[in-house]
Amino acid sequence: MKIVLLALFGLTAGQAAVWYTGQFYSLFFPQTLKVDGTSTNIMVAVALLIGTPFFVFFGSLSNRIGRKPIIMAGCLIAALSFFPLFKALAHYTNPTLEAAPQKSPIVVIANPDECSFQFNPVGTSKFTTSCDIAKSALSKASLNYENVAAPAGTLAQIKAGETVVNTYDGKAADAKAQGAAFDKTLASTLKSAGYPAKADPALINWPMTIVILTILVIVVTMVYDPIAAMLVEMFPARIRYTSMSLPYHIGNGWVRRIPAGDRVRDRRGQGRHLLGLVVSDRDRFDYLRDRHVVREGHAQVECLSRGLILALGLGGPRFVWFRSALSLQFFLRNRVEGVDRCFSARHNFILFWRISSVG
User: Fold this and answer.
1) Strands 146-149 and 106-110, bridge-based pairing
2) 64 Cα distance to chain centroid
3) Per-residue b/e over 70-90, b at no fewer than 16 CB within 10 Å?
4) What CA–CA distance (Å, rounded) separates 257 from 177?
5) HSE (CB half, 13 Å, CA atoms) of 242?
6) Cα–Cα dist 168/170, whole Å
7) Which residues contact 63 (CB under 8 A, 6 or more apart)?
8) Helix (H), strand (E), coil (C) string for the chain
9) How far is Cα 10 from Cα 144, in angstroms, rounded to an integer?
């Protein structure tokens, strides 16, 4: 267990933060900057084509000089470069959005006691105070803001430039109607203040954006590739699949979510959304669903297919942990999303029985 914990906190925790931030969030970050999905996918695809051979390069290099130096170098480069790189990504993809806060700064005027710590990893909590509504709306719009304290008992306000938008009480009887009116007013106010609804394609610097995305992918290859070999080498064959799967799935399933605290904390703090480098799975699902890329029915089919794979034992014993983690994740997520619970009690029994029998 000591080696398992060492693998979790010494290897997979750092790898998960670097991998998901550098490779997965780089796909969604341009979209939060109002870049259209097609352009984003093309730029990321080009970056992946350029960066993927580095998996082979750093794997081969780690065979000669060792795993640790490359992994530590990748983590260090990520720690020093990710914030500047994502800030540069904002500059080269949507300079209008980057410049808007300087011309028309956004201020949230609210009672600090009404501002919650909006950490909602499973999507079940509801934040209904006027302060939470204001900050949540700005966070979803990928906008920075400052805070100004307001007297107790007053509803929060959003000030964009010289225009003030009043929020509402989320617990009011007509909260739904007020919410629709608030969203419409806020959108028109932000547009008038110079905050674009979409990135201007003519202002997107494709070469520099692809260079930045490629650097992010290369940093990922430095950290991710040697870890696969290092985890295998840490444990004897008899317990290898169990021992390496536990830290790997905890690290990649939960530790990678910790940087999301930057984003949710900023809803209570200074709202530096462009510096919060993680979007949660719930945000990604909502983003794709709102744009009709995926629907809940698709999630049902995927959940059911993974359940069948798990129940039938397809893929052999070496994929048991992988199938189990994915199936359990989709089962829990579908409970949260209100999607049909496609796993029966029998499938869950098989899932936990397979986990307990590994190794």
Assistant:
1) parallel
2) 34
3) bbeebbebbeebbeebbebbb
4) 33
5) 11
6) 6
7) 229
8) CHHHHHHHHHHHHHHHHHHHHHHHHHHHHHHHCCCCHHHHHHHHHHHHHHHCHHHHHHHHHHHHHCHHHHHHHHHHHHHHHHHHHHHHHHHHHCHHHHHHHHHCCEEEEECHHHCCCCCCCCCCCCCCCHHHHHHHHHHHCCCCCEEEECCCCCCCEEEECCEEEECCCCCCCCHHHHHHHHHHHHHHHHHHCCCCCCCCHHHCCHHHHHHHHHHHHHHHHHHHHHHHHHHHHHCCHHHHHHHHHHHHHHHHHCHHHCCHHHHHHHHHCCCCHHHCCCCCHHHHHHHHHHCCCCCHHHHHHHHHHHHHHHHHCCCCHHHHHHHHHHHHHHHHHHHHHCCCCCCCHHHHHHHHHHHHHCC
9) 34
Residue 308 backbone dihedrals phi, psi, to 5 degrees: -65, -40
- Residue 217 CA to residue 329 CA, distance in Å, equals 26
Q: Would strands 157-160 and 146-149 be described as parallel, antiparallel, or unpaired?
A: unpaired
Residue 183 is predicted with a pLDDT of: 95
List the beta bridge partners of residue 146. Answer: 107
- List C-alpha distances in Å: 278 to 20, 160, 248: 8, 25, 19
As a whole number of angstroms, the distance between CA 241 and CA 239 comes to 6
What does the pLDDT read at residue 3? 82
Note down pLDDT in tens along the chain; length 359 residues. Answer: 788 888 788 888 888 888 888 877 777 777 678 898 889 889 999 999 999 999 999 999 999 999 999 999 999 999 999 999 988 998 999 999 889 998 999 999 999 999 987 766 666 778 899 999 999 899 888 788 999 999 999 999 999 999 999 999 999 999 999 999 999 999 999 999 999 989 999 999 999 999 999 999 999 999 988 988 888 888 888 888 778 888 887 877 776 655 544 444 444 445 554 433 434 344 444 444 444 444 444 444 444 444 444 444 444 444 444 444 444 444 444 444 333 334 333 334 344 444 444 43
